[in-house]
């Protein structure tokens, strides 16, 4: 087994964070999960609370915090459009002040710090598939900017702390990821479609459904994040992490109908402003540097996610109306 470490996961109670915490706890590391439960539920980390090597801290990452750690995974940030647009100013603060706080901690502790960045730094991309050297096409004043630009500034801060203060950093750019423990009302396409299909409600295609996304299964994604954290110090990224298999949103809807056996019809709703028309990661760099590529294809991952949604009590979850500053 590799050397055991003290690891902080910000946003550790969320969809990806809670799975990452599980992987790290199971590997024997001393894990601190920090979260303010803005978009997550305690149930996500319930199983972990019994482990001696797991600790939870309820804290807002926009505020400084003093901890002693060897590694930091910085995931704290609402990720679904409906969640990050609920309080857009807070979203930008979370990305920017959160980055400053974890980078300051990493500098003081000489810890390695990984930023969960996003394919949204490419905006509505005119280069397809997207490679890491593409500088993107983001609207800085649109409704997605609080997330996209916040994540872009976070990358800037990571690079400047690295160049100016020699902080040991890693940046991963995550493309659409789905799987068990997604919030059923987060408004993202996979959760919306599965929830609607299970309830026998019409499936909401925004626009004509011809826009594309490439969907990565949660377990593949978390494996890549851990590999990136443990990669050679000289490789700092940014590196694209995602599944390059691209689908139209209509194709996704058809697969959800097939695997739920639903009788749902499709209805069209307006395409949200600045909704990217296409998205597909070029993952050559991840393959070369991390020896990683996704293993779980969409149909298999969808089946696992549908099973999960069938077995949770959705009345415990609500659409995003949290009362946060
Ligand atoms: P999520 O909403 O389930 O997880 C985010 C977690 O951060 C939640 O537990 C939330 O409560 C917490 N959080 C939010 N603001 C906080 C704050 N100010 N202080 C402390 N905690 C806070 O979303 P996710 O899909 O698990 O995303 C995790 C990370 O991965 C995010 O940074 C997101 O931007 C990034 N990412 C995810 C995807 C994806 O498709 N899932 C794609 C690109 C990037
Ligand atoms: N989408 C849709 N119906 C829904 C929810 C989303 O057609 O009920 C579309 C949305 O317009 C976008 C795509 O699905 O083109 C992915 O949306 P999501 O919010 O999951 O992620 P993002 O746009 O951030 O990639």
UniProtKB/TrEMBL annotation:
The superkingdom of the source organism is Bacteria
Question: Looking at the keywords, is DNA-binding present?
Answer: no
Per UniProt, subcellular location reads as: Cytoplasm; Golgi apparatus, Golgi stack membrane
InterPro entries assigned: NAD(P)-bd_dom, NAD(P)-bd_dom_sf, UXS-like
Give the metabolic or biological pathway: Nucleotide-sugar biosynthesis; UDP-alpha-D-xylose biosynthesis; UDP-alpha-D-xylose from UDP-alpha-D-glucuronate: step 1/1
Q: Which organism is it from?
A: Blastopirellula retiformator
In the UniProt record, does the keyword Iron-sulfur occur? no
Q: Which residues cross the membrane?
A: none
What Pfam families does this protein map onto? GDP_Man_Dehyd (PF16363)
Q: What is its EC number?
A: 4.1.1.35
* Name of the molecule in the record: UDP-glucuronate decarboxylase
Q: Which GO terms describe its biological process?
A: D-xylose metabolic process; UDP-D-xylose biosynthetic process
Q: Where is the NAD(P)-binding domain?
A: 8-304
